[in-house]
Amino acid sequence: METEREQAKIQLDIARSALSAAKEKRLQEEYQLALEENRRAITLQNQQLEVEKQRAVRAAQLQEREYNKAVIRTRIQEIDDALVQLATVKAPYPGTVKRLKWQGQDDRLLTVELTVDVDSPTGRSSPLSR
């Protein structure tokens, strides 16, 4: 009877050890699962941060592009305004320009000597300086 009782006690101790080991194993598995969930959450968060960063970079690029377009449009308008202010010269006679000699410039006024080969009504050309 005494040996049966000790045998039962040994079996009980073995069962308790197995239960304790199973509990420890279960806690370890739960810990590993929690770690894996945290890793996944961190990975997802990093991916979301990267997407937001890319969106911010793209928005900055678009804003810079729009700014550059505005600068170019402004410069084109300035050039168009400058072209409007330029005077044009129309020849009073049909002919060919042979020579231009710059005499000078005063503010927006240019002085030029123009030599024109004028076509005559007879088909011959005669030089005319103006």
TrEMBL record:
Keyword flag Coiled coil: yes
Keywords assigned: Coiled coil
Domain of life: Bacteria
Record flagged with keyword Coiled coil: yes
Coiled coil spans: 5-66
Annotated protein name in UniProt: Chromosome partition protein Smc
Protein species of origin: Microcystis aeruginosa NIES-2520
Lineage of the species this protein comes from: Bacteria, Bacillati, Cyanobacteriota, Cyanophyceae, Oscillatoriophycideae
